[in-house]
Design goal:
By secondary structure, the chain is an all-alpha fold. The chain has 5 helices and no strands. It has helices at residues 14-31, 39-66, 92-107, 111-140, 142-150. α1 (14-31) runs parallel beside α3 and α4 runs antiparallel to α5. The chain starts with 13 loop residues before the first helix and ends in a 5-residue tail after the last helix.
Length: 155
C-alpha cells in the first residue's frame, strides 16, 4: 500500500464522481422529465461526444500504458507523460470522461444529467485535479512546471 505522500490523495475516483452525477441526473429526469433538445439533435450530438470522448480516452490510456505508469490516482506516478494525448492536454482522461458523460446525458436527452455534470466537474477540478497537480509538482519539480507551462489543462 503506498504512503499518503506517494499519491495525489484525490477525494474520489473520477469515474465514480461522474457516474454518481449521471445516476442522479437520470433519477431526477425520471421524476421530472426535462429534455435537452429535439431527440434527433440530442442523440446525434450525444453519439459524437461519446465516441470522441471514448477515442481520446483510449489514446490517453494507451500512452500511460506505454510509459508503464499508473492510471489509478491512488497509485504512485512513476513517470511524467508528455506525449500522445498528453501533448494536447494535461488531463486527457478527464477531458474524455467529461465528453463521454455529456454524450451519455445527451443520448438520454436528459437536462438533469447535464445539470448534474456541473458539480461533478467542480469536484473533479477541486478534489482531483488540484491535488494531482500539487502531487506532480512535488514529485517531478521543474520538469512538471515546464510541462504545465507548455500544455493546457483541458484542450
Amino acid at each position: 500500500m503506498p504512503r499518503d505522500d506517494e499519491t495525489a490523495r484525490v477525494v474520489a475516483p473520477p469515474p465514480l464522481i461522474f457516474g454518481t452525477a449521471l445516476v442522479t441526473g437520470w433519477l431526477l429526469n425520471w421524476l421530472v422529465p426535462a429534455p435537452v433538445a429535439p431527440v434527433a439533435f440530442a442523440r446525434g450530438a450525444g453519439a459524437l461526444l461519446a465516441a470522441g470522448g471514448l477515442a481520446f480516452g483510449v489514446m490517453a490510456w494507451r500512452e500511460l500504458g506505454r510509459a508503464a505508469t499508473a492510471v489509478n490516482p491512488y497509485r504512485p506516478t512513476t513517470s511524467l507523460v508528455r506525449s500522445g494525448a498528453f501533448a494536447y492536454s494535461r488531463n486527457p482522461l478527464y477531458v474524455a470522461l467529461i465528453a463521454l458523460s455529456l454524450g451519455a446525458a445527451l443520448l438520454a436527452n436528459a437536462l438533469w444529467c447535464v445539470v448534474a455534470l456541473v458539480p461533478a466537474v467542480a469536484v473533479l477540478r477541486l478534489g482531483v485535479i488540484s491535488r494531482e497537480e500539487a502531487y506532480l509538482e512535488r514529485r517531478f519539480g521543474e520538469q512538471y512546471r515546464v510541462y504545465r507551462a507548455a500544455t493546457r489543462r483541458w484542450l
